[in-house]
Amino acid sequence: MSSTTGVACPHCGWPDGAEPFQVLSAHHTAAGGTLWTRCACGSLQARVVDGHGTRVVSRGRPTPAGC
Ligand SMILES: [Zn+2]
């Protein structure tokens, strides 16, 4: 079964199931919540938290640190 989100960051390999590298903001909803996190490689991620756990629904591109 192919997945649109994968199980790890395609940029740095950080496992989606692991603790987020950095949590930018968290929004609680009736169904659970939404987490905006930044990966170790700098890519922005949107995670949805529900009764089944956490899944990455959107993933941005890595942003290089500095220039
Ligand atoms: Zn990453």
Automatic annotation (TrEMBL):
- Source domain of life is Bacteria
Q: What is this protein called?
A: Uncharacterized protein
